[in-house]
Amino acid sequence: MQIAMVGLGRMGANMVRRLLKAGHECVVYDLSPDNVAALVQEGAIGATSLAEMIGKLETPRAVWLMLPAAITTKIAREVAEHLAPGDTIIDGGNSYYRDAVDLSREFEPRQIGFVDVGTSGGVWGLDRGYCLMVGGPKDSYERLEPVFAALAPGKDGSGAKPGTGDTAPLGYLHCGASGAGHFVKMVHNGIEYGLMAAYAEGLNILRAADAGSEARAADAETAPLHDPQYYQFDIDVGGVAEVWRHGSVISSWLLDLTASALKTDADLSEFGGKVSDSGEGRWTLRAAVETGVPAPVLSSALFGRFASRDGDEYANKIISAMRYAFGGHSEK
Amino acid sequence: MQIAMVGLGRMGANMVRRLLKAGHECVVYDLSPDNVAALVQEGAIGATSLAEMIGKLETPRAVWLMLPAAITTKIAREVAEHLAPGDTIIDGGNSYYRDAVDLSREFEPRQIGFVDVGTSGGVWGLDRGYCLMVGGPKDSYERLEPVFAALAPGKDGSGAKPGTGDTAPLGYLHCGASGAGHFVKMVHNGIEYGLMAAYAEGLNILRAADAGSEARAADAETAPLHDPQYYQFDIDVGGVAEVWRHGSVISSWLLDLTASALKTDADLSEFGGKVSDSGEGRWTLRAAVETGVPAPVLSSALFGRFASRDGDEYANKIISAMRYAFGGHSEK
Amino acid sequence: MQIAMVGLGRMGANMVRRLLKAGHECVVYDLSPDNVAALVQEGAIGATSLAEMIGKLETPRAVWLMLPAAITTKIAREVAEHLAPGDTIIDGGNSYYRDAVDLSREFEPRQIGFVDVGTSGGVWGLDRGYCLMVGGPKDSYERLEPVFAALAPGKDGSGAKPGTGDTAPLGYLHCGASGAGHFVKMVHNGIEYGLMAAYAEGLNILRAADAGSEARAADAETAPLHDPQYYQFDIDVGGVAEVWRHGSVISSWLLDLTASALKTDADLSEFGGKVSDSGEGRWTLRAAVETGVPAPVLSSALFGRFASRDGDEYANKIISAMRYAFGGHSEK
Amino acid sequence: MQIAMVGLGRMGANMVRRLLKAGHECVVYDLSPDNVAALVQEGAIGATSLAEMIGKLETPRAVWLMLPAAITTKIAREVAEHLAPGDTIIDGGNSYYRDAVDLSREFEPRQIGFVDVGTSGGVWGLDRGYCLMVGGPKDSYERLEPVFAALAPGKDGSGAKPGTGDTAPLGYLHCGASGAGHFVKMVHNGIEYGLMAAYAEGLNILRAADAGSEARAADAETAPLHDPQYYQFDIDVGGVAEVWRHGSVISSWLLDLTASALKTDADLSEFGGKVSDSGEGRWTLRAAVETGVPAPVLSSALFGRFASRDGDEYANKIISAMRYAFGGHSEK
Fold first, then answer.
1. What letter would DSSP give residue A129?
2. Which chain C residues touch A186 with a CB distance below 8 Å?
3. Which residues, numbered 111 to 140 in chain A, qualify as contacts with chain D under a Cβ-Cβ cut-off of 8 Å?
4. Which of D297, A316, D309 is nearest to B293 (CA)?
């Protein structure tokens, strides 16, 4: 079928490629003409403006947005200006699910369907297929199912088939009403933060397994290490990450990537340790808090990222100030 | 080659089966004669006591212990009484790595090698192969390598070969001196706790996505829910777990198992929510603390297990008592 | 001066008493006629409806709301219907600061001032005075200062004086524009949760100091306790709480209350350990998350409360299900 | 009575001063002759070696050690060499309680009493008195009670009297057998870490209350801030700390010190935010873990200190490496 794609960054461009390969017709637009031109060379139909892009579509139209969360709502509204009853806007970005709830209501009177698609798979999705978590009206979902089927990994040997409702084994799922897709993707990313931090903490402990071979200061500002004989291991962290991939309970795709990165550079010296977050982890935590669900692991992972960017600096100064005030302790 | 196995529980018995299948000779012993008899039927050589078992071995002997951590050291010492210089004891259980450090030193003057093997794979290891993290003297490791190679998953297409040092892709790895194997397995389990909790928290949030459809009390003891319209989703948690297995960043073996369990019973009604821990998570945390490595995710996961078994009850009573004292708040 | 009070629960009634004692005139209203009658006996002027109450006030009127957060906005709007330009509404409850931001804007065109007052002190405030964190227009704040001065503890020997701006030593402070008072109170309560949990966790550890005198199962589902000789203390938890009040770094008012509660009943047997939360801790966490500030302690404290009310149950069942799936572990 | 003091740092020197003021005779020793000389000028009896110091004591002798944890055991053994049956060694430092358990057993055959005293009060103890948590044999405790009574704050108006057992209101308490004093002090410090972090996190959130007035990048690496209108407050953090001291639920001695520090320098610019820890928080966590008590707040506080000293750096690099691997995300 025919679909328009707005936003040809890492994710959007690869999704177009995967759709083209499956025989779908893609009309594409991006602020950068170079991004458009690149995909035209690969078989897409290019456009130099939203209006032109939409003009090239047959009704009922389907326009897929793949944009940073901060601008998605604005562009969705611009697109909607050009659409007619029966058309559909799909937001496949890392948007806040509440925006999907709101936009779907906003567009409803104009009979423009709004479908939110949580998309996971990263730069690997082009080859592996993307995991798609879809929210929105059932009829919009069903009309777009060929697109989802093409983007998702597809056949897994379980016998699952498109059009049957039981499509999870194929890598896409209708999760519920508008917002449900982004809600599920939000939680997916919250979990992702937790998984990443769990591996990172563990590997960091392995790296410290030789702590007993270093001398420590014997002053009141330094915690003594009892029994240094138990911390004399020089662990090959990358080798351990690799062996865990084979038969262990903690094997996973994230571990595959980690082992690969450590093989290239065990010290990860090209990274500084300032970890970004894109909003999903924050929204997950808000949902946990508002619904009364404990999420200590997911919150610890998120706060670790904040601290990596020095969000804890003022707090730490306060603690140092207290220590100085009650005990005369100076920072080392 | 020939090896003795002490402890024929879930793990030990399956490891014997996998070794037999690979053509190794296994002499087995367990407190339960039934456990021994079962394996004799499958081709193992049975024994009715440690002494008899050891008597059936040719030198240099190798005795593998697969026992609860609380009794491993005691049995290791009993076994050692019957051994001679050149023999080896292997501890494949979830033992504390410090015991391995200590025992290896204790046995060294008697020239009995002590090898600690962290073993992951659970009940699935019989078919999938076990991931093995090995610590101990290089020569002991090398003599036992055929056993490790048989227990581990083996060929992964990477071209890795036994005897080359680069055996991680095969699923076993010499991690360092005595204790290193159990140290790595300890951290492995610490990570495992974190991963499990990350998924569990996330799925719990998904389950609460309909919180806005319930009425809440409007009193001073109840947090109000702003904007209940954003919590009206009725998510199929099991379906989501399944779709995440296909193409998403958080796909993993633990997720495979979770999706399978939720398919059988979405409410998990046969479980009460009291989660045991076997020591490894605790030891991981101790190592983090002693080496100065932050492990907020791993500790949150461990403390969640403690709380599931009511380890937080007295603390919560104290908090309720404070609330009553300063604000007259009664528990609901 | 004259002030109206709506909501005569624990907090509201005592605040009226404190205001009466300082010579202010209080017109009071509550859904319960008994609550009104009780204060009329103590010198307040009663009313049987909002309208009647407001009718008894001279202009410019000042109406203080002391209500559950869930209904404050609704009542504020009802009150505003009866007010005129120049009048002021004060919200002294545990309301969400965002409501104050919104309401102040809503009332602005009608020239009704909106002042938000975070109030701390609990049932002790009547005697000790309340700590007041005030947000709102400077002129409204200044007109109401005599009321704040009467409610707050007052003279502390520092020489601070009302009307000088430097009123913090007196126990009240103009924190900024509308919403700032509740924002500061919100964070105050977030901290409160953290402090309470810190004491509770510590005292819980003291209580467990005899763990080495109990026998533990020696199976694969139970973590062994190394060195039980180090856990043989039978600590008088209440005595310790008391001694810490005298000269230690951790002395505080919350500790005073805790020591007192433990003196009455060391086992706190009248409490069940289900700890409520009233919203402030949740909002604090949301603010932390949205501004990128790590708050691992405050979030841990909040999640502990959720878990005390079984918010973690489904998550724990998932973990048990995973353990059963990979290792055949049954719950104990 | 007469007592010897070894270690005349901040804590030791002030304790001697307080003892002298109460009329006790103090024989003092320190590696630094200057430290000894200073106290001799104030009335203490100086010594140039441990042996000389002990030679100046009448039997039964009492020697109080006030030293860094890392060297206390070594010096205790040296002191014991010079003592005789009936003498007592007191360790008042931040030592590990297990050392007290072990040393008390080691000295028992020689009839040298070992008393462990957890000491809180910091540089303020000289004037306020110290809070003392005592472990050890009852008879040693009783003989030393005049010393404890002099060091502790003393009369609190409750009518409590030395020699009655109910001495907690005076600021000292016999907590149990050898090790109990340091165990209680260990937990005290664990709590202290939690309290400090709770205040620090909260004040950090207050400081960020103007986050909505800054522009944020609108890219995929930056979490968008919805509703910036709710983060427009410019809070006087020091003023808030001050007002909370008066009538609020979170008033405490640590808050007193914090308000004072913020008054001097609201930006705390002389601190860098690298927070030391002296071991007690680590040991508290180990005790929690080994006894199965959840301590998420205390552990978060401790890990925050580790992270402030970059203990999380390698973990964060791993997370950045994962993000790059799956999504092509570069660090900002």
1. -
2. none
3. 122-124
4. D309
Indicate yes or no: CB of D306 within 8 angstroms of CB of B293. yes
Q: Specify whether B185 is catalytic.
A: yes
Residues 269-308 of chain C whose Cβ lies under 8 A from any Cβ of chain A: 282, 285-286, 289-290, 292-296, 299-300, 302-304, 306-307
Instruction: Give the pLDDT confidence score for residue A181 in this predicted structure.
Output: 98
- Does C243 contact D at CB distance below 8 Å? yes
pLDDT per residue over B177-234, tens digit each? 999 999 999 999 999 999 999 999 999 999 999 999 987 777 778 888 889 999 999 9
Residue contact B290–A231, C-beta within 8 A: yes
pLDDT at B177: 96
Q: How many residues does chain D have?
A: 332
D106 is catalytic: no
Residue D278: is its pLDDT beyond 90?
no
Average pLDDT over residues D63-73: 93
What's the pLDDT score for residue B155? 81
Instruction: Tell me the three-class secondary structure of chain C, residue by residue.
Output: CEEEEECCCHHHHHHHHHHHHCCCEEEEECCCHHHHHHHHHCCCEECCCHHHHHHCCCCCCEEEECCCHHHHHHHHHHHHHCCCCCCEEEECCCCCHHHHHHHHHHHHHHCCEEEEEEEECHHHHHHHCCEEEEECCHHHHHHHHHHHHHHCCCCCCCCCCCCCCCCHHHCEEEEECCCHHHHHHHHHHHHHHHHHHHHHHHHHHHHHHHHHHCCCCCCCCECCCCCHHHCCCCCCHHHHHHHHCCCCCCCEHHHHHHHHHHHHCCCCCCCCCCCCECCHHHHHHHHHHHHCCCCHHHHHHHHHHHHHCCCCHHHHHHHHHHHHHHHCCCCC
Size of interface B-C (CB pairs under 8 A): 244
Q: Do B224 and C69 touch (CB under 8 A)?
A: yes
- Tens-place pLDDT, residues B220-273: 788 888 899 999 999 999 999 999 999 999 999 999 999 999 999 999 999 999
Residues from chain C that touch A326, judged by Cβ atoms under 8 A, are 249
Q: Which residues in chain D have their CB less than 8 angstroms from residue A253's CB?
A: 326
Q: Do D306 and B294 touch (CB under 8 A)?
A: yes
User: What is the DSSP pairing of strand C131-135 with strand C113-120?
Assistant: antiparallel
Distance from CA of A135 to the nearest CA of D (A): 22
CA distances from B93 to B64, B99, B134 (A): 9, 12, 12
Structure tokens given for A316: 């730490």
Q: What is the ipTM, given to two decimal places?
A: 0.96
Q: Quick one: which of B208, A69, B64, A294 has its CA closest to C197? A: A294
User: How many percent of chain A have pLDDT more than 70?
Assistant: 100
For the segment C89-120, what is each residue's pLDDT rounded down to a tens digit? 999 999 999 999 999 999 999 999 999 999 99
Q: What is the pLDDT of residues B32-62, one digit of tens each?
A: 999 999 999 999 999 999 999 999 999 999 9
CA–CA separation, D88 vs D141, rounded Å?
10
- Chain D residues 29-58 with CB within 8 Å of chain C: none
Among C300, C312, C331, beta carbon nearest to B271 = C331
Q: In the block, which residue shows the tokens 């409360």? A: C305
Residues of A in contact with C70 (CB under 8 A): none
Asked if residues C250 and D195 have their Cβ atoms less than 8 Å apart, the reply is yes
Per-residue pLDDT averaged across C213-235, rounded?
Answer: 86
> Is C303's CB within 8 Å of A295's CB?
yes
- Strand A131-135 vs strand A113-120: parallel, antiparallel, or unpaired? antiparallel
pTM of the full predicted structure?
0.96
- Contact residues on chain B for D307, CB-CB shorter than 8 A: 294
Question: Cα–Cα distance between C300 and C311 in angstroms, integer?
Answer: 14
D306 and B290: CB-CB below 8 Å? Answer: no
CB A171 within 8 A of CB A154: yes
